[in-house]
Amino acid sequence: MAEEQRIVLRNADQINPAKLEDYLQAGGYQGLEKARSMSRADLIAEVKKSNLRGRGGAAFNCGLKWSFVPTDAEVSYVVCNLDEGEPGTYKDRIIVQKDPQQLLEGMAICGHAVNAKQGYIYCRGEYPYVVELLNLAIDQARSKGVLGDFNIEVRMGAGAYVCGEETALIESIEGHRGEPRFKPPFPGVSGLWGKPTVVNNVETFANLPQIVFNGADWYAAIGASTYPGTKVLTLTGDVEKRVFIEVPTNVTLREIIYNYGGGVKSGRRLKAVQVGGTSGGFIPEYLLDTPIDYDSMRSIGATLGTGAVFVMDETRDVVDIVTHIAKFFKEESCGKCNPCREGTFRCYEIMDRINRGRGTLPDIEHMIQLGKVMERVCLCGLGQASPSPILTTLQHFRYEYERKLIS
Amino acid sequence: MELVKLKINGKDVEAPAGSTILQAAENSGISIPRLCYYPDLSPMGQCRLCVVEVEGNTLLPASCVTPISAGMVIHTESPAVIEARKIILELLLANHPQDCMTCDKMGDCRLAEYAYQYGVRDSRFVGEKHNYAVDESNPFIIRDLNKCIQCGACVRACEEITGKDNLSYMYRGYNRKVTTADDVSYVDSDCVFCGQCVAVCPTGALTEKQIHGKARAWELQKVRTTCPFCGTGCNFDLCVHEGQVVGVKSSPDSVVNGRALCVKGRFGWDFVNNAQRLTTPLIKRDGNFVPASWEEAINLIAERLSEIKNKYGSDSFAALSSARCTNEENYLMQKFTRAVMGTNNVDHCART
Question: CB within 8 A of A11, min separation 6: which ones?
């Protein structure tokens, strides 16, 4: 198996995650110490320079996001998105389970940068054992005083996929229905309880201690130049090794599947790979030499998203898989905006019809038009991304649809 | 006020900084269709019908919640925008009863208006439809959620205008619906039947029961008047058809109250047509009330009050006036009591 390059997982299985002492001995909290010796502006500039981009899916420059928080804000918040609801994704859980203190340190660094005294970790409702570990880690950090005056609280979600969207997540923390807000204003200006709020993904925060400690130049030199660093990926589906790995971002999909994943299961041929979770585009075999970084993925109409890599072998029925995905989205749409609520439902109806052999050619054309409109008009990322599996499979595997139509 | 320069549909326009695209467009005479935007309710940006094209933005942002910025180039009726609006209308029609012929909202329905404007006759996305039971549990409001397009105006009106917060949402996605707490009928909820939800509903989901079947929207003659129930002085439109009052509708341009009314003002007008309603003063003669003229009645009152004052003195008299009267009427009452009757025995029902 090819070598990984571990930054956020560097302590994985090397230390006892339930012991703060272990983390300290492995060099923990030195990043925070260094951050606190820097001015707020210098710290943000350093993070900006490292070109660390959000690991939750939107890939926004982390330092730039922080810089939106007004410098004169009296109260601001740091929120960690651990609402890992994307099917096939479990990298945030692994990062936290293997090394929870690193996340706390990353959040405290952000807290220093945006002058926040309070952080929240919004944890997926299906991860109660992660909440336990986090609360233990927070207690230990508090007793030892390593977080200083930065306080962290864990809040649990209740199973809504849409709460992974940052504004729906904020609504949920506030005790409201988990439904996205319109943007702008962005959370950096008006977020939790109307105060400036930085929302970052677990993996983004977990990178910070090392970035601050080793410097922006060190990080910026790793992996792809426009999306530097590493990415934690979770391999699922028809792959020999269903594992999690951390690799530099210039590694190609082919290397991931064949070098790190041991190839397609039972020596079969690969039909498609879906990267980034349920809303990711389907990538055919001939595009496997694309690096996984965000921009390269975008250039082939796909997304890096959360870093889930779902491998499908030649025996898989693409239309059936996409029908299941369409069902997922119509269940998980919050229903707030018209095109997502009604659109995901109608997409599922059409996909189901085609999958049962009752679809027609106009069905496909209507669905393409609907999907393309949804990508541009839906209120939040859920609705905007939901047609992607349909549209990319119609682009690369249209024959699979056509052979199921009423002849 | 700082003005921002931008371009809408090829026209150079200026709008105050902080305006939304929709406001800036309206300022320059360009109307944009919308179902969930109301100037008197908080913005939601959820119907997406008001989307526009902004050069440099790959998405089509909702104009009702997107602030303008200097140099923005906006197209409100580009092919992409029209296509998006048609699709949204098709999606809404796919889940809407096609009973416009007998719908009381016909002629005043914003969904129908936009379907007409964009030439959306029918939908390519017809499939399953909602089949909710219609809530007719109360005498005032008919609530047919099959016609609800989830603009959320009723939820916001209940919370922001009335302050009752009696409505919210339940369930997710296609099953999301506007409900009372625990999804009980209006009559079993905390509803005070002010009807603000009806006043803002753009479709036939919420309608006045009293008007049902009485007249088409375009047949109603609207007569602006002031509510007689209390001293607030709310204005509303009496809906008149063939010489009969058939309903009351509030209007956002009422200076005192906007759309807001209480249950009495909006729904408590049916006494107007009651056969037992008093139409002349009555004077009791030989144990029976007999119709009289105003002159007779007022003369009688003046005579009797003078008698009482002369016989028992001024302090034998006291006046209690009502919060249903206007300030001017209450002023006159106390003036009369002090100046004519000569006593300070004045009181008012709202004093305690």
Answer: A22, A23, A26, A98, A99, A102
Residues of chain B neighbouring A343 (CB-CB closer than 8 A): 87, 91
> What separation, in Å, do the N-terminal and C-terminal C-alpha atoms of chain A show?
47
Give the pLDDT band of residue A248 (cuts 50, 70, 90): very high
Query: Does B151 map to a domain?
Result: no
**Chain A residues within an 8 Å CB radius of B178:** none
Which ipTM did the prediction report? 0.94
Question: Could you read off the pLDDT of B245-299 as tens digits, one per residue?
Answer: 999 999 999 999 999 999 999 999 989 989 999 999 999 999 999 999 999 999 9
Q: What is the DSSP string of A291-304?
A: B-SHHHHHHTT---
B128 lies within 8 A of chain A by CB = yes
For A202-350, strand residue ranges (E) read 230-237, 244-248, 270-275, 282-284, 308-313
pLDDT digits (tens, 9 = 90+) for B52-90: 999 999 999 999 999 999 999 999 999 999 999 999 999
> Residues of A with CB below 8 A from B168's CB?
177
In CATH, the number for domain A318-402 is 1.20.1440.230
The nearest CA of chain A is from the CA of B218 a distance in Å of 29
- Do the domain assignments include residue B315? yes
Q: Does B42 touch chain A (CB under 8 A)?
A: no
A255 φ/ψ angles, rounded to the nearest 5 degrees? -60, -40
Q: What is the CATH number of the domain that holds B241?
A: 2.20.25.90
**A20-220: what fold?**
Rossmann fold (3.40.50)
A132 Cβ contact partners less than 8 Å away, ≥ 6 residues apart: none
**Contact with chain A for residue B25, Cβ under 8 A:** no
B168 min Cα distance to partner chain A (Å): 9
Domain hosting B244: range is: 214-277
Does residue B219 lie within any of the structural domains?
A: yes
CATH number (domain holding residue B19): 3.10.20.740
Q: Amino acid identity, residue B21?
A: I
Q: What is the number of CB-based contacts under 8 A between chain A and chain B?
A: 109
* B47 shares contact with chain A (CB less than 8 Å): yes
What class does CATH assign to A230-313?
alpha beta
Mutant choice from B172, B176, B178 vs A, greatest count of A C-beta within 10 A: B172
Q: Of B57, B77, B97, which one is at a domain's C-terminal end? A: B77
